[in-house]
Design brief:
CATH architecture of the largest domain: 3-Layer(aba) Sandwich
Shape: elongated
Strand order of the largest sheet: 5-6-10-9-7-8
Number of helices: 10
CATH class of the largest domain: Alpha Beta
Number of strands: 10
Helix content: 40-55%
Largest sheet: 6 strands, mixed
Strand content: 15-25%
CATH superfamily of the largest domain: Glutaredoxin
Radius of gyration: 45 Å
């Protein structure tokens, strides 16, 4: 009996299992369909397959830019003062600085010659209420104080606080030209050719005075004594008073250059160079007191060159400008463009 009923029970159970599975699949299919209908995007939200997804770009915030407090002319004048504070920058042309709005500084490139090598110096000046040097990309220390003097053009410095020469300077309507030199200084001697050429070209518009500033001579005093060393300077001063400096100076310097030793000319050597036409009585009287004139010339040099700038040779134009002998013509024409100029 049991054996006959068992196959029937198995058949019934299989049929129920199939029904349950079919029902489960149907339920799952209905749930899936409901989900798709509920969460499907609307027609308005659907994008055409040919329409690219738009890209949204964001512009980065612009860097803040400063505006200069000072004008270009003010920045250039300060740059010229910075250049006057460095010995080798004084021979360069003053460029026009450019304002950098991203760091708030004035910037300039200066071309200089150092040790016979051309170099470019980058200068940065802070545009604060009072302009100040930030950095000079140049070997050596930054000056402790920025000079009140300023570079006008190559080798030409405007001396701060100085007014044009007064009538008492004795130049009349001509430009006073003072050369501070040492008869025994090799640099002063080598500058003679340039100075003579300049004076020949501008003889009608300048009044020249050779002034004594003892530099190399002071070193010779240790071996030869003050009187022997200063004799040539006294001779030059007193011959100049009579308008006969040029022939005496040429003869004396030629002798010194051919002497072959670093020693002062003797009295006999100098006496042999005294030019014709010299009033000897007046000359000898002048020589006896010429030490006062040497001291006076040194005081004048300190006034116009500064105590720290007593180098030879140095030239002063019009009581207001210091010019290096290499740039005599260039400096003169920059200061006095209406003169008989050959270069600018």
């Amino acid at each position: 009996m049991d054996k006959q009923e068992s196959p029937k029970k198995m058949k019934v159970m299989n049929e129920k299992t199939v029904q349950y599975a079919t029902l489960s699949l149907a339920v799952i299919a209905v749930l899936l369909l409901v989900y798709m209908v509920a969460f499907a995007p609307s027609a308005q939200q659907q994008l055409s397959p040919t329409t690219p997804t738009p890209m949204v770009t964001q512009t980065p915030a612009a860097c803040p830019q400063a505006t200069p407090t000072h004008s270009v002319d003010e920045a250039k004048r300060y740059l010229a003062r910075v250049m006057a504070s460095y010995s080798d920058m004084a021979y360069a042309e003053v460029p026009t600085p450019q304002f950098n709005p991203y760091n708030g500084e004035w910037e300039a490139n200066i071309t200089i010659s150092r040790n016979n090598t051309i170099q470019r110096v980058f200068i940065r000046i802070i545009d604060s209420p009072a302009l100040q040097l930030d950095k000079a990309y140049l070997e050596g220390p930054k000056p402790l104080v920025i000079s009140d003097n300023w570079v006008v053009t190559n080798g030409t410095i405007r001396i701060a606080g100085k007014i044009p020469c007064v009538l008492e300077a004795g130049c009349g309507n001509k430009t006073c030209v003072w050369e501070f030199a040492d008869p025994y200084d090799r640099y002063s001697i080598s500058a003679e050719e340039k100075m003579n050429a300049f004076l020949a070209r501008h003889n009608g518009s300048v009044e020249f005075t050779y002034r004594i500033l003892l530099t190399q001579s002071a070193l010779l005093e240790n071996n030869y004594g003050k009187e022997e060393v200063e004799r040539i300077s006294k001779y030059f001063i007193c011959a100049q008073d009579q308008g006969l400096l040029a022939p005496l100076k040429k003869c004396a310097l030629d002798k010194y250059k051919t002497k072959g030793v670093d020693a002062p000319l003797t009295k006999s050597e100098l006496d042999a160079c005294l030019p014709e036409g010299l009033d000897m009585e007046k000359f000898e009287r002048c020589v006896s007191t010429a030490y006062v004139r040497i001291a006076s010339d040194k005081t004048l040099a300190e006034t116009y060159l500064g105590v720290s700038g007593l180098t030879t040779p140095s030239v002063v134009f019009g009581c207001q400008y210091r010019v290096h002998p290499t740039y005599l013509e260039h400096g003169f024409c920059a200061i006095y463009p209406d003169g008989n100029c050959t270069t600018r």
